[in-house]
Amino acid sequence: MHLERLKGEKRMEQQKQLSVGQWFWTIFLLGIPLVNIILLLVWGFGSPSPRKNFALAVLLFELIGVIIAVVVVIFMVSVAGYSLS
Fold first, then answer.
1. How far is CA 33 from the centre of its chain?
2. How far separated are the first and last CA of the chain, in Å rounded?
């Protein structure tokens, strides 16, 4: 009985995995501006799917990038403003 349950769990785990073609289209769609943000939000905060953790990781990575970019821009503007006065 325990062995049957393990086989069932393994079968369910294999069904959750994405094929190469599905990953191809996932990455392709994420290359389209604006569509990528919408899809990442849907996959990340929607119902559980194999793409959920991937989407959340990409969103976190992008958020960190935006924060760093804002800090750099603020720093550059303040340095440029200081040097002009």
1. 14
2. 79
pLDDT digits over 1-60, tens only?
Answer: 566 666 655 555 555 789 999 999 999 999 999 999 999 999 999 988 899 999 999 999
Token pair in block for residue 74:
């603020």
User: 50 near 19, Cβ under 8 Å?
Assistant: no
CA distances from residue 60 to 9, 38, 39, 44 in whole angstroms, order as listed: 30, 14, 14, 10
* Position 76, amino acid: M
CA 38 to CA 23: how far, in whole Å? 17
Q: Are 25 and 36 in contact (CB under 8 A)?
A: no
Q: What is the rounded distance in angstroms from the CA atom of residue 55 to the CA atom of residue 61?
A: 10
Contact by Cβ (8 Å): 44, 56: yes
